[in-house]
Write a structure and sequence with these properties.
Elements lengths: L3 E6 L11 H12 L3 E5 L8 H14 L2 E5 L13 H17 L4 E4 L9 H21 L5 E4 L11 H10 L7 E2 H8 L7 H15 L7 E5 L1 E5 L2 E6 L8 H10 L4 E5 L4 H15 L4
Parallel strand pairs: 1-2, 1-10, 2-3, 3-4, 4-5, 6-7, 7-10
Antiparallel strand pairs: 8-9
Helix pairs in contact: 1-2, 3-4, 4-5, 5-7, 7-8, 8-9
InterPro entries: AP_endonuc_2, Xyl_isomerase-like_sf, Xyl_isomerase-like_TIM-brl
Protein name: Xylose isomerase-like TIM barrel domain-containing protein
GO molecular function: DNA binding; DNA-(apurinic or apyrimidinic site) endonuclease activity; phosphoric diester hydrolase activity; zinc ion binding
Length: about 280
């Protein structure tokens, strides 16, 4: 057994039109030999409880682990006028994701709006705490995962997501390693030693056992000194996947690795094959 499940963020490009949708995506992931799917609800949460039940049933039938990528338009640092809309998007993604059988809800934390992390994190954590309390009261048992982001203007440094996760129950990071590489903007954050330091920092903040339930996004990435420009096919980028995988293996990590490259399932399968070639026994 390999320690990581591999899959895609969003439906595989090869998903047939029938049954299609998220249900078809679950079955297609299974037919490809992958084992995880992140439902790409990135524009809005437009799903009925009936459809959620069908998604959940398909995932149970196939053994596929589900997560949700919540709408992009969430900002924990939004103005007081805009915050209720952002809040509802996150709540809806978590509520309907839970109905669909998802265990983890990934979201973009938002923008600093020119302020420092120290100036905004109090508000961010208070609002996130409020969301978690509502979800707990409604019996929604999911892990909210603020994602590490690829631009320094965005909330989502490693330190940001670790602070949120340390201070708010039911919150753990989504580690997008391509974003961490791009956020640096200078080609760094792309070596075995650097990734080992990230994992050590993670374990110090959240405990050694947290390394057993990592939720990872991965792709190639184009960037400038200001950070991320766009995602690339993994083999068309400078990202050192083998160095990352070696660090994850040597640190004894486990969880999910979900591909976000333009070549979704092709690159997800390549990542899985690369892991198996590096570590034949898992």
């Amino acid at each position: 057994m390999r320690p990581f499940r591999f899959g895609t963020v969003g439906s595989p490009l090869s998903t047939p039109k029938k049954p299609g949708g998220s249900v078809g995506a679950v079955y297609q992931i299974a037919s490809l030999g992958l084992s995880a799917l992140e439902l790409g609800w990135v524009q809005a949460v437009r799903v009925t409880p009936e459809t959620c039940a069908q998604i959940s049933a398909a995932a149970k039938e196939t053994g596929i682990a589900l997560s949700v990528h919540a709408p992009y338009f969430i900002n924990l640092n939004a103005s007081d006028e805009e915050w209720p809309k952002s809040r509802q998007r996150l709540i809806d993604a978590a509520f309907y994701g839970f109905l669909a059988g998802a265990t983890d809800i990934v979201f973009h934390p938002g923008s600093y709006f020119g302020e420092s992390a120290a100036q905004v994190m109090g508000k961010v954590i208070s609002r996130l705490q409020g969301c978690v309390e509502e979800l707990q009261a409604r019996g929604v048992r999911v892990t909210l995962r603020p994602e590490t982001m690829g631009k320094s203007a965005m909330i989502g440094s490693l330190e940001d997501v670790l602070q949120m996760s340390h201070e708010v129950p039911q919150v753990q990071p989504c580690l997008d390693f391509a974003h961490l590489h791009a956020r640096a903007g200078d080609g760094s954050m792309n070596s075995y030693d650097e990734w080992m330091r990230v994992l050590e920092t993670y374990a110090r903040a959240l405990g050694e056992e947290s390394l057993q339930r990592l939720h990872i996004h991965l792709s190639g990435i184009e960037y400038s000194t200001k950070g991320e420009r766009n995602h690339l096919p993994i083999q068309e980028s400078d990202f050192d996947v083998k160095a990352l995988f070696s660090a994850l293996h040597d640190r004894g990590c486990a969880g999910r690795i979900l591909c976000e490259s333009p070549n979704l399932e092709t690159d997800a399968l390549w990542m899985q094959e690369t892991w198996d070639a590096l570590f034949p026994m898992g």
